[in-house]
Amino acid sequence: MSEAVFIPLNIAILTVSDTRTSETDKSGDTLQACVEQTGHVAAVRAIAKDDIYQIRSVVSQWIASDAIHAVLITGGTGFTARDSTPEAMIPLFDKQIEGYGELFRSLSYGEIGTSTIQSRTVAGVANRTVIFCMPGSTGACKTAWNKIIAEQLDRRHRPCNFVEMVLQRG
Fold first, then answer.
1. What region holds the MoaB/Mog domain (predicted)?
2. What is the dihedral of CA 94, 147, 114, 17, to 10 degrees?
3. Does the reported pTM lie above 0.85?
4. Burial class (CB in 10 A: 0-12, 13-18, 19+), 80
5. CATH code, domain carrying 97
6. Contact 28/47 with Cβ under 8 angstroms?
7. Structural domain includes residue 61
8. What whole-number distance in Å separates Cα of residue 131 and Cα of residue 124?
9. What sign does the dihedral 126-156-66-131 (CA atoms) show?
10. Does residue 5 form part of some domain?
11. pLDDT digits (tens, 9 = 90+) for 111-147
């Protein structure tokens, strides 16, 4: 049996924020650095206002594209009136990845204690594109990427990962 080899994926990064710009988007910068340091391609990056329809518009274009394998979304997962990332994404999912939010909050508990209950992180698959939503802090982005997402987007990770599924597109 041959050993699995790393396959770089094209990953889109969306920052959901009413205030951040390309110059002040530290969480987007952090995710881009994580993606590229791992050997993947940060194929496209955008910032959307915390508005259900603006978020869906951007992500819908990416999940319709055969060129994008995964989407990372930072921001809009809290409980303020404007936080709407889960509401924007869940209707787009063909399947929800239930364990992602559970695992994220479990890992985050060790870092921020019970404040993790205010994190409405979600993930799912839409048109064979895997989508991971995380809080807007750089610390949360690092936790999500380093402790969950990086392994799930690495074909060498066993016993399972999302790479074969996302490569079946097109």
1. 12-156
2. -60
3. yes
4. exposed
5. 3.40.980.10
6. yes
7. yes
8. 5
9. positive
10. no
11. 999 999 999 999 999 999 999 999 999 999 999 999 9
DSSP strands (E only) in 82-144: 95-96, 123-126, 129-134
Residue 148 Cα to chain centre, angstroms = 10
| Tokens representing residue 161 in the block | 């990962």
Burial class (CB in 10 A: 0-12, 13-18, 19+), 140: buried
| Structural domain total, the chain | 1
Query: Following DSSP, what letter does each residue of 129-142 receive, concatenated?
Result: EEEEEE-SSHHHHH
Q: Say how far apart CA 42 and CA 39 lie, in whole Å.
A: 10
Please indicate, yes or no, if residue 136 is contained in any of the structural domains: yes
* Encoded tokens for 25: 């988007």
- Cβ 50 vs Cβ 17: under 8 Å: yes
* Domain contains 3: no
Domain that holds residue 114: 10-167
pLDDT at residue 2, rounded to an integer: 59
Q: Are 58 and 15 in contact (CB under 8 A)?
A: no
